[in-house]
Predict the structure.
Amino acid sequence: MPGPIIDPPELGEEAAPCRQSDEAIELLSRRRSTSVEWLTSPGPSSQELSAILRIGARAPDHRRVTPYRFIVLEGEDRATAGAAVARAFAAANPDADQARTDVEANRFMRAPVVVALVSRVDAAHKTPVWEQQLTAGAVGQNLLVAASAYGYAAQWLTEWYAFDAEVARAFGLSHSDAVTERFAGFFYFGSAAAPPRERARPDMATIITRFADITTN
Ligand SMILES: Cc1cc2nc3c(=O)[nH]c(=O)nc-3n(C[C@H](O)[C@H](O)[C@H](O)COP(=O)(O)O)c2cc1C
């Protein structure tokens, strides 16, 4: 059954500061990414995708800079965008054989819906670049959680093409004095062909310190 589409509060409307949700705790405690190799159809419907992106865009954002945007790849667009990835790959690897280039051309075909999350940094803004980048990261995590809540498996990937200038150009990313755009990553959404297994997690004892226990020299 498709998940509900919940309207966000109206501007200025009182919003609940918190609400206990055992289901949300369970989802957050156990959510896993699904490797793109295991993603299959169906992916989110256009209504569900809109909701997932809207939830993504509810990430904390100091001074409302909106330092990110989304580029949606569905249907044929995945092949067209993949061709740009393959061209960039072939230009950088002139000796690569056709089979290898085909792998690149099919990158975005690995899931029914792919969303490029673009970080958009305004270096002149009062909000530090670092904070703008953190916001884009928080958007990414919201996307994964929202997709999971709607019943879709997802993976956040950068691979090589997120760092390639030719691919950035093909996606229309801008690099001007006013704003620097770069890929925060590509979000692959679909259904899991097999359940992912838990991976190693941080040893919490090594990442939590009490301030009282800090010694400085
Ligand atoms: C910014 C970013 C880029 C990533 N790029 C890749 C990648 O290119 N290849 C890859 O195998 N995993 C990549 N990952 C890791 C996976 O998306 C995922 O975090 C990992 O498989 C474990 O996910 P989970 O803890 O949500 O289950 C990336 C993660 C982040 C946050």
In short: The mean pLDDT is 97.
